[in-house]
């Protein structure tokens, strides 16, 4: 029940839930693509806000403060998810791209693609190929790619967030892109 | 391997590194020398950028479709949050 010593704290938080939870949810959903996770993140945001309300200075905007808490929660969520996924490259049955000298294997050497039509993505078949090629990648590479393209973040921020070194990060993206390119070449341009 | 000449593997790594973090002067020169002689890596460099823009567009349009419903937080969850707060 409401503790009598600070009924206003509960009133303030309830008001905030009514005012801001929809916006917070949309942000969380946009960055996680996961409704359940987004709802949990919003809930955790309000719990944290409640616990830390003494730190909230009334001259700043509640909305901004709540969004900063949410953003931290979202980053933690991405980091935890990325960490949880085990990268097992030995189980990955991708094409061998390079020989022992570091030269392209003949079968996968990049050859010219026919001029890309601007509206390649308007073709449902191409989108299907792209999606299945992405799905074939090890999940960890996939998460790294998603972070690169869906988050408005610098590479440094992503490395920090995923807790990997810069060289680890670009090497991971390199392997992912090499395989993705091979898959698209085989399934779209050569077929 | 000649000290100036990169392998294709290394060159393609530099191509990715370049688009993410940039290259230092020495690396830029090495990459330039390699791609000016290697058609495969020249194609790779171009296709790597094409893949980036395809993926960016694809992933974001997919996301926009998903979030275009503009749903807010479910009323049930709002109630639950307020209830949880009361118990704190």
Describe the structure.
The complex is a heterodimer of chains A (191) and B (88). Chain A is elongated, with a radius of gyration of 23 Å. The longest helix of chain A is centred in the first third of the chain and has 26 residues, at 7-32. The model of chain A has no long low-confidence stretch (mean pLDDT 87). In chain A, helix 1 runs antiparallel to helix 2, helix 1 crosses helix 3 and helix 5 crosses helix 7 (166-189). With 191 residues, chain A is mostly helical. Helix content of chain A is 64%, strand content 0%. Chain B is mainly α and 88 residues long. Helices cover 77% and strands 0% of the residues of chain B. In chain B, helix 1 crosses helix 2 (25-37), helix 1 (8-20) packs across helix 3 (39-67) and helix 2 (25-37) packs across helix 3. Chain B is elongated. Chains A and B meet through helix 1, helix 2, helix 4, helix 5 and helix 7 of A and helix 1, helix 3 and helix 4 of B.
Give a concise summary.
The complex is a heterodimer of chains A (191) and B (88). Chain A is mainly α and 191 residues long. Helix content of chain A is 64%, strand content 0%.
Give structural attributes:
heterodimer, A: 191 residues, mainly alpha, 7 helices, B: 88 residues
SSE order and pairing:
The complex is a heterodimer of chains A (191) and B (88).
Chain A: H1 7-32, H2 35-51, H3 62-84, H4 124-136, H5 139-150, H6 155-162, H7 166-189
Chain B: H1 8-20, H2 25-37, H3 39-67, H4 75-87
Helix pairs in contact in B: 1-2, 1-3, 2-3
